[in-house]
Amino acid sequence: xxxxxxxxxxxxxxxxxxxxxxxxxxxxxxxxxxxxxxxxxxxxxxxxxxxxxxxxxxxxxxxxxxxxxxxxxxxxxxxxxxxxxxxxxxxxxxxxxxxxxxxxxxxxxxxxxxxxxxxxxxxxxxxxxxxxxxxxxxxxxxxxxxxxxxxxxxxxxxxxxxxxxxxxxxxxxxxxxxxxxxxxxxxxxxxxxxxxxxxxxxxxxxxxxxxxxx
Length: 214
Hints:
By secondary structure, the protein is of the alpha+beta class. Helix content is about 35%, strand content about 10%. The protein is built from eight helices and five strands, in the order H-H-E-H-H-H-E-H-H-E-H-E-E. Helix 1 (about 5-10) crosses helix 7 (about 120-140), helix 2 (about 25-35) packs antiparallel against helix 7 (about 120-140) and helix 3 runs antiparallel to helix 8. It starts with a helix and ends in a 34-residue tail after the last strand.
C-alpha cells in the first residue's frame, strides 16, 4: 500500500485471531528495522523473535505470571493471543565503542555515557521498532508496541538470556511488539485513542521558537 496509507492505517492491535503469521512478513519487518537511522551508524539494536507457542507463552509467563496462571483481564487476554512477539533491545556498548573510534573521538563522547545528551541506543531502537510496526501494517497484519512491567524486566531478561557477564553487557529490552492477524476490534480492550482526541499537527508545530504558531 502507499506510504501515506500505512501511516494512516497503523494502529495498536490488542487482540488477534489464531491464524499463523507468514515468517516472510516477520523477516521483511526485521529487514526494514535495520534501515532505521542510528547515531554514528552504530546500529546498536537486537531483536528477540518469539514465534512458537512455547516461546510466546514463556515470554508471557515471565512478563505476567499471575495472568498466565489465572484468568487474564481483557487487555492481556487479547495481547496474549498474538502468535508472534518481538522484543526489541538496545545495545549501549555498541554506541560507546563506536564513539571511541578515531573518526568519532572529536565528538568528545567516547566511552563516557554521561557525556551523551540522551541515550541514543534506546532512541534508535525505538525508531527501528516503528519500522517494524509500519512494515506489519503494510502486510495487512496488526501489531502493538507495549512496555514491559517494571518489576518484571529482570525476569524477562533472564528468561530471554539477556544477562550481563563480566566480559559483555547484555542488550536491554525497551519493550515488546505483538504481531498477528487482527481480531474484530470488539474482541480486545479499547485503547486510549478511542477516548482521546488526536492532536492536529497545527497545534504541536512551532516556527522559530516554542509558542509560535505556523
